[in-house]
TrEMBL record:
Start and end residues of each Transcription factor IIIC subunit 5 HTH domain: 166-320
Region (Disordered): 464-520
Acidic residues bias spans: 483-501, 508-520
Organism placement in taxonomy: Eukaryota, Metazoa, Chordata, Craniata, Vertebrata
Quaternary assembly: Part of the TFIIIC subcomplex TFIIIC2, consisting of six subunits, GTF3C1, GTF3C2, GTF3C3, GTF3C4, GTF3C5 and GTF3C6. Interacts with BRF1, GTF3C6 and TBP.
Start and end residues of each Transcription factor IIIC subunit Tfc1/Sfc1 triple barrel domain: 23-130
Molecular function in Gene Ontology: RNA polymerase III type 1 promoter sequence-specific DNA binding; RNA polymerase III type 2 promoter sequence-specific DNA binding
Subcellular location per the Swiss-Prot or TrEMBL entry: Nucleus
Family designation: Belongs to the TFIIIC subunit 5 family.
InterPro entries for the chain: TF_IIIC_su-5_HTH, TF_IIIC_Tfc1/Sfc1, Tfc1/Sfc1_N, TFIIIC_tauA_Sfc1
Name this polypeptide is given: General transcription factor 3C polypeptide 5
Gene: GTF3C5
Assigned keywords, A-Z: Acetylation, DNA-binding, Nucleus, Transcription
Known role: Involved in RNA polymerase III-mediated transcription. Integral, tightly associated component of the DNA-binding TFIIIC2 subcomplex that directly binds tRNA and virus-associated RNA promoters.
GO aspect biological process, one term: transcription initiation at RNA polymerase III promoter
Length: 520
C-alpha cells in the first residue's frame, strides 16, 4: 500500500493478514546466512518442536556441530505485533535543474502476518569447554577426532593414549543473576561459648503445625479412636459457614455409613467439595491409617478393620504400570502420563508451568449461598468432583496415572474379585502385609492387572508391538492372550526375581506421604 500522499504523524491504513500467524526470534547476532542461523537453533524441525511445547525454551548453539557446545536459552513470551514490509522508493524528477531537482520518495507498506509469540535471549551464556589440549610449547591440539567415534572402531581406538579431558559434570541451572543477599557473620562478644547440645537448644520445625488435627494410627496400635479431637471439631465448625457445607458433611457421613473405609480420591469422586475444606472435614469424620493393608485410607471412627474379616475388601493395592522392553513398550511409549515428581527439577531448557490462582473466600462462596441462582448451584455442585477412574479399575480402560492406589472393592473385574475372595470364611489372621487375604494376593492382583493393561495398550497402540524386537519382547503378551496359562505361569516365575517388576514409574509420587504432609 503506497503511503506517498500521507503526511508525517498521520496513521496509515494497512490490510491485516489474520490468517498468517508468525513466531519471532530475537536472534543475538547479525544474520548473514539464514540457513546457518537455523542450524544454530536446531533447524526448522527443532524450532517447530520447541514451539509445540510451551514449557520448553529455545536453545541456540553457537557451534552446532560441536557436541560439547553449551547452548544459551531464550524465554517465550506472548505478544501482539505485526510484521511489516516497508519499501522506500526514490524517483528523480527530470527536467528540473539545480537544487529544485528533489527526488520523489514513496513508501510501500505490506502486512506479512501477525506475530503472537516471541523468543527473547535474556540470560547469560555459560562457560564453553572445548576438547582442546595445550601442549608444552603452547600449541593447541584438537582432540575431537580422538574422543568422538563417528564410525565403528576396533579395540585399539579405546586403548589409545589421550590427554586428560574432563568436562564439568553439570552446568549452572540458572542463566540469570540472582541476588544472594549476603549478610555478615554473627559477631559474639568475648567469652561467649556455644550452648550445650540439648533438646531445648535444637531447631525444630520451621513452621507451625497445620491445624487440621488428624488422628494417625499404626497397624500395630492397640485401639482405634471413637471420636475426633475436639480441636478438629472446632476447626470444622469455623469453616462450615453456609448450607452447602452442611450438605457436604451429611453426604460424607452417608458415605462412611455405606462403606467404613475410603480413600481421599474416592471421596473426591463422589462428592463435590473444595480441597481445602476436605482437609478439615476428613479429620472430623475419620482417622487415618499409616501402615498395614489399609494404609493411606480414612477409616470411620470406632471401626477397627483388624477385627472384621469382611474388611479385606477395603484393603489398598499399590499398583504401578510395568514397563520395559520385555513388556513390549518403553516408558516414553506408554499412553499414560506420569505424575509430577519430587525430582522434577527446573532445568535451564524448561520453564515453570503457570501456578494455580489463589482462591479467595468470595470464590468459595460464589454460587453456594442461599441467594445464588439454580444454575450457579448446579455448576458448583460438580466443580471439584473427580472422575471415578481415579479410584476404580475397569478392564479395557487405562489408569489415569502410572501409579495408582486402589481398594480391593474398586477392582471391577470378576477375575480379580475371585482372587480376593479365595479364602472367604477361612480368614484366621490379619497380617500387616496381606491383611485378611491369602499370602501373595497383592502380587497375583498386580500380575493379572498388568496383563490386562498390556492387552489394552496393544489394542490402542498396535505399532508398539509390530517391530521384530518388540514382538520378541512381547511374547508373553501373545502367549497369555492365547489362553496358555501354563506359559503365563512360567513367565511369571521367571520374572519373580526381576527388580524391574515393581520399579516405580517415572514421575510417580508418594501419595500417602503427600497426604500426611497436609496435616503435619
Amino acid at each position: 500500500m503506497a503511503a506517498a500522499d500521507w503526511g508525517p504523524g498521520v496513521a496509515v491504513p494497512v490490510e491485516l493478514r489474520r490468517e498468517r500467524h508468525m513466531v519471532c526470534v530475537e536472534y543475538p547476532g547479525v544474520v548473514r546466512d539464514v540457513s546457518k542461523m537455523l542450524q544454530t537453533l536446531g533447524g526448522e524441525e527443532g524450532v517447530s518442536r520447541i514451539y509445540a511445547d510451551p514449557t520448553k525454551r529455545l536453545e541456540l548453539y553457537f557451534r552446532p556441530k560441536d557436541p560439547y557446545c553449551h547452548p544459551v536459552c531464550a524465554n517465550r513470551f506472548s505478544t501482539s505485533s505485526l510484521l511489516l514490509r516497508i519499501k522506500r522508493k526514490m524517483r528523480r524528477q527530470r527536467g528540473a535543474p539545480g537544487p529544485e531537482a528533489h527526488p520523489k520518495v514513496t513508501f510501500d507498506i505490506e502486512s506479512l502476518g501477525i506475530v503472537s509469540t516471541v523468543y527473547k535471549f535474556q540470560g547469560m551464556s555459560d562457560f564453553q569447554y572445548l576438547a582442546v589440549h595445550t601442549e608444552a610449547g603452547g600449541r593447541h591440539m584438537s582432540m575431537y577426532s580422538k574422543v568422538l567415534m563417528v564410525k565403528p572402531e576396533k579395540e585399539n581406538f579405546f586403548h589409545q593414549e589421550l590427554p586428560l579431558y574432563i568436562p564439568p559434570p553439570i552446568f549452572s541451572r540458572l542463566d540469570t543473576p540472582v541476588d544472594y543477599s549476603y549478610r555478615p557473620e554473627t559477631q559474639h562478644r568475648e567469652g561467649y561459648n556455644n550452648p550445650s547440645i540439648s533438646g531445648e537448644n535444637l531447631i525444630g520445625l520451621s513452621r507451625a503445625r497445620r491445624p487440621h488435627n488428624a488422628i494417625f494410627v499404626n497397624f500395630e496400635g492397640d485401639e482405634v479412636p471413637e471420636q475426633p479431637l475436639e480441636a478438629a471439631a472446632q476447626t470444622w465448625r469455623k469453616v462450615c459457614t453456609n448450607p452447602v457445607d452442611h450438605k457436604v458433611e451429611e453426604e460424607l457421613r452417608k458415605l462412611f455409613e455405606i462403606r467404613p473405609i475410603w480413600s481421599r480420591n474416592a471421596v473426591k469422586a463422589n462428592i463435590s467439595v473444595h480441597p481445602d475444606k476436605l482437609k478439615v472435614l476428613l479429620p472430623f469424620m475419620a482417622y487415618y491409617m499409616i501402615t498395614g493393608p489399609w494404609r493411606s485410607l480414612w477409616i470411620r471412627f470406632g471401626y477397627d478393620p483388624r477385627k472384621h474379616p469382611d474388611a479385606k475388601i477395603y484393603q489398598v493395592l499399590d499398583f504401578r504400570i510395568r514397563c520395559g522392553m520385555k513388556y513390549g513398550y518403553a516408558p516414553s511409549d506408554m499412553p499414560v502420563k506420569a505424575k509430577r515428581s519430587t525430582y522434577n527439577y527446573s532445568l535451564p531448557i524448561t520453564v515453570k508451568k503457570t501456578t494455580s490462582q489463589l482462591v479467595t473466600m468470595q470464590d468459595l462462596k460464589q454460587g453456594l449461598g442461599p441467594s445464588a441462582s439454580a444454575s450457579a448451584r448446579k455448576l458448583a455442585s460438580n466443580k471439584y468432583k473427580l472422575k471415578d477412574s481415579v479410584y476404580i479399575f475397569r478392564e479395557g480402560a487405562l489408569p489415569p496415572y502410572r501409579q495408582m492406589f486402589y481398594q480391593f472393592c474398586d477392582l471391577n473385574v470378576d477375575e480379580l474379585q475371585k482372587i480376593i475372595h479365595r479364602n472367604d470364611g477361612a480368614e484366621s489372621l490379619c497380617t500387616e502385609r496381606d491383611g485378611w487375604c491369602l499370602p501373595k494376593t497383592s502380587d497375583d492382583l498386580r500380575d493379572m492387572m498388568s496383563l490386562m493393561i498390556r492387552h489394552t495398550i496393544r489394542s490402542k497402540r498396535p505399532a508398539l508391538f509390530s517391530s521384530p524386537a518388540k514382538a520378541d519382547g512381547g511374547k508373553e503378551q501373545l502367549t497369555c492372550g492365547s489362553g496358555d496359562e501354563d506359559a503365563e505361569d512360567a513367565e511369571d516365575e521367571d520374572d519373580e526375581d526381576d527388580e524391574d517388576d515393581f520399579k516405580p514409574s517415572d514421575g510417580s509420587e508418594n501419595e500417602m506421604e503427600t497426604e500426611i504432609l497436609d496435616y503435619v
